[in-house]
Amino acid sequence: MTLPIHRIPALLCLVLALATVAVFVTDILPFAKIDAIGKVLLAPDETDFDQILFHYSTLPRLIMGFLCGAGLALAGAAIQTVLRNPLAAPTTLGVGAGVEFALTVFLLLAPAAAAPFQEAVALTGGMLALGTVYLIAARRTNATLWLILAGMIVNLLLQSGTQIFLLFNEQYLQSVFMWGAGDLAQNGWESTIFVLPRVIIGMIAIFALSRPLDLLALGDDTASSLGAKVTLLRIVILGFAVFITASIISAVGMIGFVGLAIPAALRIAGLTRSRDLMIYSLFAGGFALLCIDFIVRQMNGIGGDILPTGAATALFGAPFIILILRKARIMPGQQSDDHHQDQQIISKNTLSLALFATLLAGIILSLFVSLNQNGLAFLNGADGFGDIITQRAERTFAAIICGAALAVSGTLIQRVGRNPLASPEITGVSSATALAMIIALVFFGFGQRAELMMIGAAGGIVSLMVLLLLCRKFSHAPHYLLLNGLALTAILGALVRIALTRGGTQTSMLISWLAGTTYFTSMTEVMVVAGVTAVLLTVAIIARRPLELASFGADQATSLGLGINGFQFMIMLLAAILAASATLLVGPLSFVGLMAPHLARIAGYRLAGGHLLGAVLIGANVMMVAEWLARNLLYPQQLPTGLIAALIGTGYFLLLAIKRR
Amino acid sequence: MIIRLFSRFSAPVFLIALLITTNMPAMAEPITISHDRGVLTLEHPAKRVAVTNWAFTETVIALGIDPVAIADPEDYHDWVAVPELPADFVNLGQRSSPNLEALRAAKPDLILISKELEMAYNSFNAIAPTMVLSIYNNDKDALPTAREVMEKIAIAIGREDAAKTWLAATDLKFAEYGDRIRAAMPKGHDLDIVNFVSPTHISLYGPPSLPGTVLRKMGLSIAYQGPVTNWGAAKGGLEILGPQAQNTLVYLNPVPDVIRQKVWTSPLWKILDFVRNDRVYELPVVWAYGGMPSALRFAQLLTESLESGPVK
After folding, report:
1. What is the ipTM of this complex?
2. Domain covering A348-380+390-422+510-659 in this structure, CATH number
3. Burial of A383 (0-12, 13-18, 19+ CB in 10 A)
4. Domain definitions of chain B by residue range
5. What CA–CA distance (Å, rounded) separates A304 from A310?
6. pLDDT (tens digit per residue) in A279-298
7. Which of A54, A281, B78, B115 sits at a 20 to 30 Å CA gap from B135?
8. Between residues 98 and 137 of chain B, which touch chain A (CB distance below 8 Å)?
9. What does the H/E/C string look like for A370-390?
């Protein structure tokens, strides 16, 4: 069947519209017999629960479904056009995380009298997050890529903050997770009345700006020469898109996939003019979310539990994201602008020695010095000395080994991928590892750590294979790999949220585990991971010559007679195994795999062998510090090590980004 | 000494002495208790107990022993309230990851953990003998399991007699509260017990939950009989209360102010029959995932609430 390309979007909308009509008819059918349709729509019988339920729950839910889908898809279309990146979405710019953080803090701390301000607070949180992201990325040569990266960093930073809050307020976990997973349930018209005018204002503003948007789509240089004030336009359009998004998220929670996938899918279907794209996105998004929510509603109550709409939406969307990745033509990407001048402060040998000395001193301090309710405490030869030392050693070494493993993994991925932003955390390998373990734990009841570790490792390796399949030529476009990883992480994140709403009291354990805790680690596990890391590090160092060649790029390397694809494949496999084993101990979000190789390169470790060694030393040091802080900072409370490392890591990148403006 | 007694005194006196010694074998014979991870053997009843969740905390206190180490004591005040914590104990931090060094410093001779912490069993057992006991999340009815857990803890700390007395008194109270509830509750309207989880979601307790099993023990039955999660409750929007509207609604505290404000102003809430006809009752703070003391407290608070009348 050959269909004219321009008909596909219209056909898609028509199918979705028909499905919407079917949904509406199904919902209202029970009232057809009692001749109450008009009544139930406008003025329900105050004594009939079914009528009240339809009028105050089902009907607003249908309308909210459409409004949210339409608003998010429109915002996504606008943002994608502005950023010229088919994988950009409101949620990738930190807005979702900002709203979530603000609302979590508000829900836990605010008195009842402040309830009317809840939405305003959430809105402010989203706007502030976007502001931060924009400040970091503004006036960079490669602003498009930086915006996504900054969004990701701010996302992670805010998510870490939210998690710390939740860890200390366990009882409220369920309610925040329900919202965080995207919840369209309605108890009245209040939310609809809140969202409706805001979405309409946002829509009108964006449509008014849609002509300049078409100019933007031509690229910065062209648009500037056409006289449009590029920066100002970007800020205004992004601002309105975020305004819509934040209003929606503060009312119904995270529903991220619609804003990402609908406009991207329509673009692939052949829509190029921004005005068309936005109009179609609006309707397709609205109809799509309404229909998906209908299916979700049918599944509620199975096993006495709820399926949250937002998270379920991401599941429905997973195949689409894969499709988009395969079809999308990422805008011609410049190589990252991330070429650091070497800062040879001291010679590398001296630096290595210093790092090594710090590590040794740090280990001794970690073992003998701690904080308790009386302040600093030094371990003396009192009873239990040996046991305490063993236990501290277990956790300290677990952290150090993980730091080293992630550093090696990150270095390999960055060098072979020739992408200074790639890392096991960002490419989704770590998330996949954690996800595999969580699914095994929550849905299949595996409880033994050995089993879980095997399952996790398998998950990590499979995800890397998928990633490699998706971008066979990933070394040509650095941010292609990055965006793939981002999509993968987003899908996995949705699954994790579903698992968390179902986790019962395991939830708090899962959170601290996701955030990376050495609490459940045993010496045997540390030894195994240490062994794996040592062997693979040795292999990597032996392979440093071909690794050096690989970092020049496929073309040169091949002309130098190296079978680059087989070699790349092997190295990436090593990296995945290392990342998976480290994730098992400290969780998926530590950022060490990104930060350590990065720092090592800045410090002047340029050749592959030195780069590996430097990264290992830096990674081990960072994790050691994070582990000590996690154990002692809030004694007797134990913070997750991975969370502290992530705070250090994201803080570092924020500083780096601000400094380099 | 026995030989000397034998030589100096007559046979009856010896028999009495023998009786006394056979009556106190507890000191000599080791105690064995089966738990979720095998059998625990103790030389002596434990005196210094460390507890890592609130069901254990309240159970140990109810048995007349002050735990030496307690997890999440601050939140305990907000969510469990009574029995009062002892004046002096070691704070272990969060229940999800009790601080092992603080635990060691408390020098316990028995540690109680539930299966959520079982992955760290070896670390705990290296500090002191550790029992894994779970009341929830295991497809069992809450109240009988809580009772079993109390009896096992009692054996481990040598308070079996105290446990027997306590449980017997509690059974009497359950019966008494049952009668009072039957007299006080709105006639012909079964009891629904709920928790407000978010502005749009509630937990509706079912038969296997602590509230459900306590009601059954008192000869009453919980209204909701539908599907539940393995924590004994169904989660859902306010609409799952629709079919329950002819019942009497009892909700547990604490309810965050934000949630209360939103639910109370919602049309869907206002239309429900129990709201319109004043059959909504409120319980002060009570831990629906606790042990026997929480079960008793729930019964008592429910009685008092029903006797003092609905929420205005």
Report:
1. 0.77
2. 1.10.3470.10
3. exposed
4. 29-134, 183-308
5. 19
6. 899 999 999 899 888 888 88
7. B78
8. 99-102, 104-105, 115-120, 122-123, 126-127, 136-137
9. EEECCEEEECCCCCCHHHHHH
